[in-house]
Recover the amino acids of this structure.
């Protein structure tokens, strides 16, 4: 979730809401899709950018500002097109006519730069039932809205590469609300009282042929998210922890990207990382990571192996307490400053710290060797999967993983939420939870699961 203050107070604007069925947009507006229409026809287009601004919430003003940042770029004859779907709220920003519906824009340069006024033209989008001279309210939490927007972009703005930027609140791994803690997902839509779950997001982008997926949200660079989308793009870019409401600097991002001759996938990843590191160079705990999605499957396996090696070494409550104390007090961690809040830990720091105390955990040399070998292999997998990252504290290989909700600083909740428990009755669990062997807890605790050993096992 983007932070709505300059001191990381990051209060959730949506809490404990129910999750009704998404609105059916199958034939909104009664428009028939015209597959011959090519409003963005441009020969030699290298990139089409799709920016999904889910701002039907307290980030409405930030969305207006970021669209203005996009318009401040002088694109000239650059071979790119940028589409912005913006869903606004009725209460948080009164500028630009105070419209509160959902509109699709093709970004155009504003010669005056940052003016606070949207100058880009609206577009018709038959796939979504949008007409540029009518007001239409869409539910941006509905994965079909995202899916059909991508379909429109590929049909009307064909390009060599497609990049999708998810903009707005984001809260990591979760797929459904438990009724006890704030909702965790992306694309919070206040008007409809919904959000988009992680598995739903995965289905929305599956098979779309994207090259880059960027998350201008909090808590995006986590293994749970990267694993969900590992087959849906080449590069994924996001932050391990919180970011401010201002999010990315889109003017600097596209100025930097367009200064490259090749306009490659790598150049785009570097442009995102560079603008972020420049913008947040003085912000404690700021991170940004480029994740090679082709390497995430291997990373997942090595993380699972390391978790299994540590699990095998824990045979007593005292050994459990040593590992848990490291996680709660020593390993690099990310969480909101208000509670309840989720605890995320940096995977590389976790492996390094636990490997460093393996002789304290167990006196068995077999376990020492297994943990050391698994930690080394996990470190190599992280180097391959996170080829570039930036962190204010200077650390590298930045990608996190969820541990447990916290009730206070270093105070774990009594139980994980059901969607993070393998074998629970929760519907729509993430691929990470479904495929994990040695990390996530189980409905019936097992002695080969690290989170079971740490929080549920009776010694």
């Amino acid at each position: 979730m983007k932070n709505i203050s300059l001191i990381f107070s990051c209060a959730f604007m949506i809490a404990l809401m129910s999750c009704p069925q998404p609105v059916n947009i199958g034939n909104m507006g009664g428009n028939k899709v015209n597959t011959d229409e090519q409003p963005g026809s441009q020969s030699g287009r290298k990139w089409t950018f799709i920016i999904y601004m889910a701002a039907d919430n307290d980030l409405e003003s930030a969305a207006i500002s970021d669209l203005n940042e996009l318009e401040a770029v002088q694109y000239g004859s650059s071979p790119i097109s940028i589409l912005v779907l913006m869903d606004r709220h009725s209460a948080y920003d009164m500028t630009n006519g105070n419209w509160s519906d959902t509109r699709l824009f093709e970004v155009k340069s504003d010669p005056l730069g940052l003016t606070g006024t949207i100058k880009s033209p609206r577009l018709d989008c038959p796939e979504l039932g949008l007409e540029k001279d009518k007001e239409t309210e869409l539910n941006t939490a509905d994965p079909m809205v995202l899916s059909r927007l991508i379909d429109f972009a590929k049909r009307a703005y064909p390009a060599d590469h497609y990049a999708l930027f998810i903009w707005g609140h984001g809260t990591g791994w979760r797929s459904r609300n438990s009724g006890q803690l704030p909702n965790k997902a992306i694309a919070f839509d206040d008007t409809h009282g919904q959000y988009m779950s992680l598995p739903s997001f995965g289905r929305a982008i599956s098979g779309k042929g994207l090259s880059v997926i960027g998350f201008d949200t909090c808590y995006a660079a986590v293994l749970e998210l990267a694993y969900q989308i590992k087959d849906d793009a080449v590069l994924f870019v996001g932050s391990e922890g919180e970011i401010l409401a201002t999010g990315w600097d889109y003017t600097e991002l596209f100025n930097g990207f367009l200064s490259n001759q090749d306009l490659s996938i790598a150049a785009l990843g570097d442009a995102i990382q560079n603008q972020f590191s420049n913008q947040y160079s003085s912000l404690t705990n700021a991170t940004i990571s480029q994740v090679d999605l082709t390497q995430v499957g291997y990373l997942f396996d090595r993380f699972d192996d390391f978790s299994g090696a540590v699990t095998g070494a824990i045979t007593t409550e005292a050994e459990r307490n040593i590992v848990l104390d490291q996680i709660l007090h020593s390993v690099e961690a990310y969480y909101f400053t208000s509670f309840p809040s989720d605890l995320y830990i940096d995977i590389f720091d976790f492996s390094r710290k636990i490997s460093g105390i393996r002789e304290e955990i167990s006196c068995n040399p077999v376990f020492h060797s297994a943990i050391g070998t698994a930690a080394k292999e996990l470190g190599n997998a992280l180097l391959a999967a996170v080829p570039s990252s930036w962190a204010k504290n200077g650390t590298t290989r930045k990608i996190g993983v969820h541990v447990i909700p916290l009730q206070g600083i270093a105070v774990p909740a009594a139980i994980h939420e059901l969607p993070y428990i393998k074998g629970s009755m929760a519907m729509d669990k993430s691929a990470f939870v479904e495929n994990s062997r040695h990390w996530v807890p189980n409905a019936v605790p097992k002695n080969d699961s690290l989170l079971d050993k740490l929080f549920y096992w009776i010694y």
The chain has two domains: 2-13+41-293, 297-455.
